[in-house]
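A reminder from the course coordinator: this example appears on the midterm review sheet, so study it carefully.

Given structure:
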């Protein structure tokens, strides 16, 4: 961590890094004595010439030259505030040996994908541990049980609470443990003795056990009650999180056995959960708008004609996202929900005015043509104000401009296409579908005519 800090300190106060915080060991589920975390705060957007993504690239280059260190720069998520990679792909099922093999296969494929970088696995067998094997035959010959050997190791190395004592009315635990400095290597076990229950002699522990230093995982993790290993990765450029998860899912289908279980965490889980939720919200918004219009027009046909403008706006928004190279992210999805109202208002103007002309006694075909001509200017004016209002979102710079740009593209393209096509689609569909319908005031006027006669 000191080497990492020394490489970043020269950049502190040079127009990029504002503050630097170093902690070792790190915190969280992956922390250990051989881990650490370094948090850097960037200067304000207006005070620096590089973006956060460019800073991350520079940090990768600085850390690449440090041997035996794996450092992964992660940008804090704008949604949820998580400080972890956006791709959190969880493999479960089977034993940990199988999971390691599966994770290595998927991680290798992920590293070959140019859209993914900083691919890592949270199961690293690099925690030094001492593995003690008891020679049971020799221990039995010398009259020492495995239980006595285990109790001796637990007491001297781990510590146990043996008894308590009273002092001035207070009870205190007596904790037995050897001094830590007495055991710094496997050879120090020679200083431990166990007593034979047959001869009563003290026997050195290294005569009964063999000690091997091995590397093991710091912890064996579970997710949804299954053994699990998480593959994490960052996204490169405009590579979308949906594309990354679809790629990993396909690799699991092609390369892993059927018993492999796939789950998601963090931002990946949010994406998978929100995909179904956003479609539900969109459908509910369409239903609510339709029901409100049905109550206003007192008809189920007229609102349906108005709602035909929504697919026009959505198609325009998708085309705008495709042309601009943007993705269908949470911000563009929210903008599409907003587009329901922006698209429907033009259809309301035409349908409402057709009904008014029909109430005045104008023939059906003449009312459709006349309303379309008279509503042309209001529709173009309202569409123009909405489109011009979206231009600042398209030209925005500074922090968060990428998110505002997505909203601006959806509004600009969706309203433009919807407004232009509405002038042709709504009158045409009204002529086809609403010929046998009447306006909300038709019954009122009929009753008034009967009463007056």
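Designed residues:
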């Amino acid at each position: 961590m000191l080497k990492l800090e020394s490489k970043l300190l020269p950049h502190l106060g040079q127009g990029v890094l504002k503050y630097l915080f170093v902690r070792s060991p790190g915190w969280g589920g992956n922390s250990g004595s051989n881990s650490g975390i370094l948090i850097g705060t960037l200067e304000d957007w207006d005070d620096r010439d590089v973006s956060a993504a460019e800073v991350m690239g520079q940090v990768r280059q600085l850390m690449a030259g440090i041997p035996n260190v794996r450092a992964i720069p992660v940008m804090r998520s704008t949604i949820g505030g998580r400080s972890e990679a956006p791709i959190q792909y969880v493999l479960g099922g089977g034993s940990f040996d199988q999971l390691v093999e599966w994770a290595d296969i998927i991680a290798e494929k992920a590293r070959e994908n140019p859209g993914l970088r900083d691919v890592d696995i949270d199961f690293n067998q690099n925690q030094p541990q001492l593995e003690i094997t008891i020679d049971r035959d020799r221990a039995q010959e010398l009259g020492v049980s495995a239980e006595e050997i285990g109790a001796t190791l637990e007491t001297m190395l781990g510590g146990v609470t043996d008894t308590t004592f009273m002092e001035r009315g207070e009870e205190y635990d007596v904790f037995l443990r050897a001094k830590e400095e007495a055991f710094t290597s496997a050879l120090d076990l020679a200083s431990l003795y166990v007593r034979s229950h047959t001869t009563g002699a003290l026997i050195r522990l290294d005569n009964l056990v063999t000690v091997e230093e091995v590397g093991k995982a710091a912890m064996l993790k579970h997710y949804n009650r299954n053994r699990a290993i998480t593959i994490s990765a960052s996204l490169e450029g405009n590579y979308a999180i949906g594309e990354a998860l679809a790629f990993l899912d396909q690799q699991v289908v092609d390369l892993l056995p059927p018993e492999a279980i796939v789950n998601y965490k963090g931002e990946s889980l949010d994406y998978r959960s929100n995909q179904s939720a956003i479609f539900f919200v969109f459908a509910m918004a369409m239903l609510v708008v339709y029901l409100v219009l049905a109550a206003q027009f007192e008809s189920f046909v007229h609102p349906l004609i108005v709602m035909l403008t929504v697919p026009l706006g959505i198609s325009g928004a998708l085309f705008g996202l495709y042309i601009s190279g943007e993705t269908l992210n949470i911000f563009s999805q929210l903008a599409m929900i907003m587009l329901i109202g922006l698209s429907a208002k033009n259809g309301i103007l035409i349908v409402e005015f057709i009904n008014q002309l029909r109430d005045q006694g104008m023939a059906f075909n003449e009312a459709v043509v006349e309303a379309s001509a008279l509503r042309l200017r209001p529709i173009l004016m309202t569409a123009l104000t909405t489109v011009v209002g979206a231009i600042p979102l398209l030209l925005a710079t500074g922090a968060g401009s990428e998110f505002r740009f997505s909203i601006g593209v959806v509004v600009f393209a969706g309203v433009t296409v919807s407004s232009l096509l509405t002038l042709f689609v709504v009158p045409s569909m009204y002529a086809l579908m609403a010929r046998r319908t009447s306006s909300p005031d038709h019954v009122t006027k009929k009753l008034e005519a009967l009463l007056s006669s």
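The mean pLDDT is 82. The two ends are 96 Å apart (CA to CA).
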